[in-house]
Amino acid sequence: MKKSILILEDDSATRFLLTHYLSTEYDLSIYENGLEGLAWLEKGNNADLIITDLEMPKMDGFQFIARARNDDRFRDIPILVTSSLDEAQVRKKIKCDCPYFQKSVELSSLKSIVSRMLNEV
């Protein structure tokens, strides 16, 4: 059975690339903001990994991470943060020790990060 990844990303081109790189090996649930992703989780759906952008409408990644980490149901799901923001700035704002993936880095390296994180579960 494929492992499940929840992807929160508002940029359609990035969503397309993530789908292209990950859909053959993983079951993907993709939403445009944290509010939609949180609603999906609250309906009883489960993910083995969450990949979230930080800058999104309605509920950004910072807010999503805070809500997920404060909810016992979702607290233990690993989160991979993706952003074009500077990692040092991000680390000051997020309240978790989540791995960080700089969007300007080649997306093929994302596949190895995801695989490593899911093998730790």
TrEMBL record:
Any one Gene Ontology BP term: phosphorelay signal transduction system
| Keywords, ordered alphabetically | Phosphoprotein
User: Where are residues bearing 4-aspartylphosphate located in the sequence?
Assistant: D53
Which InterPro entries does the record match to this protein?
Bact_response_regulator, CheY-like_superfamily, Sig_transdc_resp-reg_receiver
Instruction: State what protein this is by name.
Output: Response regulatory domain-containing protein
Q: Where are the transmembrane segments?
A: none
Q: Response regulatory domain spans which residues? A: 4-118
Q: Which domain of life is it from?
A: Bacteria
What is one Pfam family matched by this protein?
A: Response_reg
Q: Coiled-coil segments, which residues?
A: none
SUPFAM superfamilies hit by this protein:
CheY-like
The record ties this protein, via Gene3D superfamilies, to: 3.40.50.2300
